[in-house]
Fold this sequence. Notes:
Blueprint: E1 3-8, E2 11-16, E3 29-34, E4 37-42, E5 48-52, H1 54-70, H2 74-79, E6 80-85, H3 89-97, H4 101-107, H5 115-118
Antiparallel strand pairs: 1-2, 2-3, 4-5, 4-6
Amino acid sequence: MTLQYQLKEGNYHLYDLSTPASKVTGQHKLRLSTDTVALAFDASTGVLHEHGNPARIHSWATTARRRLRAAGSLARANDIVVVSGPLPVDEINKCLRVEGYCRRMFTQLATLPHGKRLSHQAAC
């Protein structure tokens, strides 16, 4: 499955590019529409675990941390980071495509532009 976020009408839309484009709209299958996006990843490696609606991602991270701590993996539990907000769509898509990119994005987070004002749309 090839996923890509686009910013449309102030919302992030997640499309599945592995599905055929609609003959009517020309769009691929819409998987998610949300006003902000959250990314859960390992701070040490930048490996992305989950992405999507912030409430779901924060819940996933809380559960994953709790399970890791219960299994005695305190360091792995503490390594899980969740970043959410109006992130630039280009940065989000790089996190989906490039393994480990979340770590680089995380180190540059303070200097990234507001995602809803300055990101350009990626074509499906």
